[in-house]
């Protein structure tokens, strides 16, 4: 499923560039290959070029340079209606002057399907999203979640092999969003379709995707499975963008294979795993996840370095306790502790010593 | 709810408070009345705010229009000043030859009217039905004032033989009652015969029905042309980037800001036979010097000039609707496999219908009542019914006729409005 080889990729972007005004590039040299049946998410802040990539794939924008291939066939010159790609829009784009049934019937009618065929397919698609009873309603009579399901059913009713989704859950409330994430994921697994999903919500990207492409500044910063993305970010943008992250700037003091010692500005030494680090003395930004920070010496691996910290405040969040610490002169270091029986309660002003497993601290390029 | 153990049932009973089912407030007053009281102050205040406008509309619009419409079926120009003759007409059925009593009544009324100097009004009223009779009344009036001896029939016939004309007597009988439908009959090219039967007027006098038809036909053509021309512009306005669309909007609104007369005159300059367009065509050799096109002072001129003037009324409602249509609808249609034409026809166009309906209704209604442009560039074949109304208002001074024509026009427009409501639904109208 995660096959990246050129010949097997279902969707391929090759050296794709896009500029709207001839002055700046919105997409800079994009190379991406998506396997058949894969759920790939394009994740990034707004303006990072992810939606432009989706629109180029759908055919609503033309690539300024480079080639986009679908099933091995270049589609740069193929108009949108001949690409056979299902698409779910951010605002659902259900035709307001048609009923739900007519909305679903539309893609089948333009394909010249017979009435009987259309009806079976519409019924099947509506049942698939548990909306069988709503065929005669108008979109305006449906709630946001229901409209979302209809939009999904409409994008799937003509059996496209590729479905694009442009922030489809953006307008839903949190609970419904999580529910729909599960349903979309479930549909994807059941139907075996390829999904390209665009979102700026990292939680959504991590829970649903086979692979996530993190976009920033018109480039893919990292393309990896969710767990890799979270645990092994390749640069400090990805580390910052995915999940909560502590960053400690410093210089490489010692470099030996997959271990490094980093000297912080305040002179303390910490352990880290070097990523894209070439030599001693290089500037770096060490990234550590808050839940991987330990303050009990017995939890630390033997020989690990520890540094002093002062507790600024502790926030009770139910399942976890979130402590803000002053480390190496800056007070934005976060530590998360599970709220278990017997968990040590820290007090503001308390002096502690913290440390981590060297594999959890990643020395990244300083951005 | 029926289940006594159902917690909702218990809540409903408590909220109801009393057994009669009507909801009451906490202190036992009916909820409906409490609601009305709590909102009455706000309502009164709102009413006071619109009161000046209401009064303004009443005084400047409803009352004058009502009075004008009343004239279409009520004209006492004859009956008020010729009471005795009117009485004689009331006493004797249609077809009775005027006897000496009638002549006496006529002479008495003429004298009284001449002395009161209202004879002109009387003459004008009869002149509507029998052209050329106003002077008969005024000249006879002058002589009657000097004194008249019975028998009056002979005396009056002595002054002018026209007094024996049965058409005149028929017209006077019709005018003897202030309430009459004759103006409406005349407005649809019908007349009441001497025996009271309704028949068409002579062919060369049949103008109004033809004018009504022409007015509606030309209005339809103009509405269609504004739609064909305005739709792409409205679309462009709605989709262009803000800066360019603002510039285009100024161009669209430019006709609004130019004086109507200037606009119309510029069409004259362009379209007349020795005008710019004909000159260019001759210069290009498209037409010979002797074949200059007649593009103004006929229906073509009316259509061109009115289309130009009414175009913004089509564009603006269309634009306001198109602006709200999210481009993702068309994109969705395209991604679902529709060609751009199908996407337009089945997804975009239906969504513009509220704007199209509003624009078409606006343009059509305005066109139906348009006056100044056809008067200036319409020639004789481009005149519309409103020009006839204006003529009756200013030239023939037959205000009742003008009112009847205007009332018919109004009725036709209201009918159209009703049909539109039945077919499309007025709530589907979006004016801006």
Automatic annotation (TrEMBL), chain A:
Q: What are the UniProt keywords, alphabetically?
A: ATP-binding, Cell membrane, Membrane, Nucleotide-binding, Translocase, Transport
EC class name: translocase
GO MF annotations, alphabetized: ATP binding
> Domain ABC transporter, which positions?
11-242
Give the catalysed reaction(s), semicolon-separated: ATP + H2O + polyamine-[polyamine-binding protein]Side 1 = ADP + phosphate + polyamineSide 2 + [polyamine-binding protein]Side 1
What EC number(s) is this enzyme filed under?
7.6.2.11
Which Pfam families does this UniProt record tie to the protein?
Answer: ABC_tran, TOBE_2
Instruction: Tell me the domain of life.
Output: Bacteria
Q: Which InterPro entries match?
A: AAA+_ATPase (IPR003593), ABC_SmlMolc_Importer (IPR050093), ABC_transporter-like_ATP-bd (IPR003439), ABC_transporter-like_CS (IPR017871), Mo/tungstate-bd_C_term_dom (IPR008995), P-loop_NTPase (IPR027417), PotA-like (IPR005893), Transp-assoc_OB_typ2 (IPR013611)
Q: Which family does it belong to?
A: Belongs to the ABC transporter superfamily. Spermidine/putrescine importer (TC 3.A.1.11.1) family.
Q: What does this protein do?
A: Part of the ABC transporter complex PotABCD involved in spermidine/putrescine import. Responsible for energy coupling to the transport system.
Oligomer status and interactors: The complex is composed of two ATP-binding proteins (PotA), two transmembrane proteins (PotB and PotC) and a solute-binding protein (PotD).
Q: Which PANTHER family match?
A: SPERMIDINE/PUTRESCINE IMPORT ATP-BINDING PROTEIN POTA, SPERMIDINE_PUTRESCINE IMPORT ATP-BINDING PROTEIN POTA
Name-wise, this protein is: Spermidine/putrescine import ATP-binding protein PotA
Give the organism, scientific name: Paracoccus fontiphilus
From TrEMBL, chain B:
- Major site of localization recorded for this protein: membrane
Name of this chain's protein: ABC transporter permease
Q: Which domain of life is it from?
A: Bacteria
Task: Give the organism the record lists.
Answer: Paracoccus fontiphilus
Please give the SUPFAM superfamilies that the UniProt record associates with this protein.
MetI-like
Q: Where is the ABC transmembrane type-1 domain?
A: 212-420
Q: Which InterPro entries match?
A: MetI-like, MetI-like_sf
Q: Where in the cell is it found?
A: Cell membrane
Looking at the keywords, is Transport present? yes
Transmembrane segment boundaries: 46-66, 216-238, 245-262, 303-321, 355-377, 397-420
